[in-house]
Write a structure and sequence with these properties.
By secondary structure, this protein is mainly beta. It has three helices and 19 strands. The strands form seven sheets. Strands 7, 8, 9, 11, 12 and 13 form a six-stranded antiparallel β-sheet that branches. The protein has a three-stranded antiparallel β-sheet with strand order 5-6-10, with no helix packed on it. A two-stranded antiparallel sheet has the order 1-4. The chain is rod-shaped.
Length: 238
């Protein structure tokens, strides 16, 4: 006949010697001795079903998990640690020796989800989730999550250059509207944005803003020289 018993309210910093023996009315039998060492590594198992939700935002990733399946560990756990680092930027894997720093934060042990914020657009992150006690962190469950590829609005500069870029007059005073961009390049850009940026849960499809550029000035320029002067990082398409 076999059995299992749990010992509670023990000091995690102490060593315990545990003896088990059988006894009768005549007295105790020979004891089996074992030594219980302090829990120096914290949790011994990982959270389960760690899931990152991709393409939900340009600067954040939602992560969820289920608790560690060990009641004794859960009782003395302090919380979960969420660590993350970029492993792919755009279409390029981060090279050895050029890896960005790893960031982390903690949540209470009753919390089973987190939002990782302040991330870069179009970047894949390795995400680790582990339980921790006063003795340290346990092993991590690992997943990966991707931020959206593009912001909703993409700024640019352009000049009219038929038949490549043109506009239709829609009012008697000769003013142009964004909805009336014509020519070969606007249509090509629209298709490229749909294909390359794909869809982001936070804002849906991205679009090219033909009205205002990256400095909130007028996107349409009068000459090639003006366009070159305004080529800068604040314009997404340049």
């Amino acid at each position: 006949m076999s059995g299992t018993r749990f010992l509670y309210d023990m000091d995690i910093y102490a060593n315990y010697s545990i003896e088990i023996s059988a006894f009768t009315r005549k007295g105790d039998g020979n004891a089996t001795l074992d030594l219980a060492m302090p829990d120096a590594l914290g949790a011994k198992s990982t959270p389960i079903n760690v899931t990152a939700y991709n393409y939900t935002s340009t600067t954040s990733i939602n992560v969820t998990w289920n608790p560690i399946e060990d009641e004794l560990i859960l009782e003395r756990m302090l919380g979960y640690r969420v660590s993350y680092r970029a492993v792919r930027i755009g279409d390029e894997d981060v090279k050895e020796g050029e890896q960005p720093p790893t960031y982390n934060f903690t949540v209470r042990k009753t919390t089973l989800d987190a939002v990782i914020e302040g991330l870069d657009t179009y970047t894949r992150y390795q995400i680790n989730v582990s339980g921790f006690t006063r003795r340290g962190d346990g092993p991590s469950a690992i997943t990966a999550g991707d931020t959206c590829r593009c912001h909703k609005r993409l700024a640019t500069n352009y000049r009219l250059f038929p038949p490549y870029v043109d506009q239709l007059e829609v009012t008697g005073d000769g003013l142009f509207t964004v909805a009336n961009m014509t020519g070969m390049l606007p249509a090509i850009l629209d298709n490229l944005v749909v294909t390359c940026c794909q869809t982001c849960a936070a804002h849906g499809r991205s679009y090219v803003d033909f009205k205002y550029n990256g400095t909130n000035g007028t996107a349409e320029q009068n000459s090639e020289q003006e366009m070159k002067f305004l080529i800068e990082d604040r314009n997404d398409l340049r």
